[in-house]
Amino acid sequence: MNQLRRERDSLYKDIHSMVLSTAQLMCKNLKDEDVEDFIEKLEKDEILVKYCKQEESWKSAFQYIDSQNVPVEDECMVYEAIQKQPKNPPEHCHFYTQFREKMDGILHPEDTDLLETQCTINLIDPISKSRMKDPVKNVICNHTYDRYSIAEIMKRKSATGIRCPYQGCNNRELFKLQDLVPDEITKQALLSAEADSD
Ligand SMILES: [Zn+2]
């Protein structure tokens, strides 16, 4: 019995996050200028309000069932009875606040941390000044270059190692090929920048 209720509660949480991530995913696939309309439609067409009413019903039903220890065979009756009761305004619903917060984050991404990180990722190779294809990171100073460009410079001085060619780098230490590792974060940023421009 308790196991069943735990499963019910976790299923209920899953539904929540699925609704939120579906809305986010749909926004992601829209053009920027259409996102606002889409969110307004979700709210105006009362999809959000309907969902919140449903949510309030579930919540009250769960509370009643759990506090009164309603037998499983009577649970459906409780759901039906509670569906008919008047509901709190949707603004009081926890999901309503959550949904608004997520959508605000999409409409005003400059306020979110995620985009700040994305903005600081440099996609331009400091050596060739063109967009990197295969970014590698210097583990000594953390500067990133395109593998091809840095290999070209190294070819000439491979025995002694070279200084970081990044302009303004304070690192005086010479480095060799083995000090370079693939820069996975920049690689991901390049891939998503490519996907955006398609
Ligand atoms: Zn450097």
From TrEMBL:
Entry GO terms, CC: nucleus; Smc5-Smc6 complex
Predominant location: nucleus
The protein's annotated pathway: Protein modification; protein sumoylation
Keywords carried by this UniProt record: Metal-binding, Nucleus, Transferase, Ubl conjugation pathway, Zinc, Zinc-finger
GO biological process: double-strand break repair via homologous recombination; protein sumoylation
Pfam family, one: zf-Nse
Residue span, SP-RING-type domain: 110-195
SUPFAM superfamilies: RING/U-box
GO MF annotation list: SUMO ligase activity; zinc ion binding
Localization terms from the record: Nucleus
Superkingdom of the organism of origin: Eukaryota
Keyword Zinc set for record: yes
Family under the similarity heading: Belongs to the NSE2 family.
Alphabetical list of PANTHER family matching this protein: E3 SUMO-PROTEIN LIGASE NSE2 (PTHR21330)
Name of the protein in question: E3 SUMO-protein ligase NSE2
Classification of source organism: Eukaryota, Metazoa, Ecdysozoa, Arthropoda, Hexapoda
